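Title: Prediction job returns without error message
Component: structure pipeline
Severity: low
Priority: P3
Assignee: unassigned

Description:
Job completed but the reporter wants confirmation the result is attached to the right record. Sequence as submitted:
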Amino acid sequence: MIHLDKGKTAKEEARESLLKEEASIRDRVREIQKNLSLMLRTLGNMAIANSIFAHSRLPSMVLECFLLIFVDLLPYICDAT
């Protein structure tokens, strides 16, 4: 059987473009999740190692980490609206 390449229709191209964009967003979310997990694990280890640090500085460091992640996600939040 001979397969002729007819080219893609506009609908097929739009779907392919959408699938690529979704894959890119999934990859970015996976990367952000990995970074968040690493940061929280590190902060937890710091808190275990130094209870004075945990009491005085840990809450603000957790907030800073979440702000960094939010700033990283901001372009995706703006694109979604």
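Comment from assignee: result matches the submitted record. Helices lie at 10-49, 51-56, 58-80.
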